Amino acid sequence: MKRMIIQGGNRLSGEVTIGGAKNSTVALIPAAILADTPVEFDTVPDILDVHNLMIILESMNVKSSFTHGFLEIDPTQIIEAELPSKAIKSLRASYYFMGALLGRFHRATLIFPGGDNIGPRPIDQHLKAFKALGASVSENNGTVHLDAPNGLHGTRIFLDMVSVGATINTILASVRAEGTTVIENAAKEPEIIDLATFLNNMGAQIRGAGTDTIRINGVDTLQSMNTHTIIADRIESGTYLAMAAAVGDGVMVHNVIPEHLESFTSKMIEMGVDLQIDSDKIYVPRVKQLKAIHVKTMPFPGFATDLQQPLTPLMSLAEGDSTVVDTIYPKRVKHIPELQKMGMKIEARDGMIVIKHTDQLHGAEVSAGEIRAGASLTIAGLMAEGTTVINNAGNILRGYDRIVWKLNRLGAKVSIEDDSSVKI
């Protein structure tokens, strides 16, 4: 168990560079096993999820090495093997191995994946797509068995709900299938475009990524010819923008794709943050006065569910009542009781989160129930008077590239400790 210790009250200033997108990376690594050659990724975030995915690769005799943001994966000697349950259970995105293994071997067996507990996230749409492609699906005691002894065959698949995971898994399963697959009501997230770009550069034929209809012509082989640079993480970007507005004296955020953040930055501007947006960087000046806002999360290009929690501490500084309605994960409220321990006036009622103006937060011992709740508590800890101890800080490290190093470079006083005896 890890704890994050934050000495509050330090204003932040300087520069921070955003890492590669977590939500791209956790799909790209399973996608790599579809290649018939070694593959290389650049700007890979140094997060726990990457290391857990490497453990899963190793169980299949897929060698990988990771240093300074550069990840090499060699799937040329891949074998079918039982995947390590601890690593599978540690991150939900391990379910992308279903689509990748089905595409590679025409069969797969995985225990039900773990990850953040933020409410129901069923995989029925994934399984529906696999069945449509020709696979039989059976579930037994938390284990999913997929088998397509006659191979996978292109078809038309309509997803009943917009799902990033189901869209990605369908792409992974169908990219080497026979014939043409059409995914309708597909998710449009930038990470899906990133995955399609990687696969197309290896010879895949994927068209329409980023729209609600994706067409995939199956190919016989995928061969990497160059290094794939992962797009910037829009959730990490938004987290640092919110943090800089809450406790910053002028922070420049580098390696940002502003087009991926428009729904978020528009809300910050609406609050009264004078963002200075450039082509690949955003400057956040010191903020003096903020107005209350109303946020409703939606599928991309709407306001991302992953950014409602990191924005919450900033909303507590605004005059008046701000509200959040999360249409994606309504049960994403683990941060609320923890922020209340720190003195924030926040509550969930009638399917809505209400954040009232709070003059001062104070340090407390809290727990990061999942990644983005942990980000919210980190920002609150920086704002608070005194010391904040965040238990289960491993959840934060799962999603934020070198966060302690980055925060301390900006002037924060943050550390990670293993000793469970740490007390305030």
Automatic annotation (TrEMBL):
The active site is at D116 (proton donor). SUPFAM superfamilies: EPT/RTPC-like. Its main location: cytoplasm. Residues 6-406 form the Enolpyruvate transferase domain. It is an enzyme of class 2 (transferase). InterPro entries: Enolpyruvate_Tfrase_dom (IPR001986), Enolpyruvate_Tfrase_sf (IPR036968), MurA_subfamily (IPR050068), RNA3'P_cycl/enolpyr_Trfase_a/b (IPR013792), UDP_GlcNAc_COvinyl_MurA (IPR005750). HAMAP family: MurA. This is UDP-N-acetylglucosamine 1-carboxyvinyltransferase. It comes from Limosilactobacillus urinaemulieris.
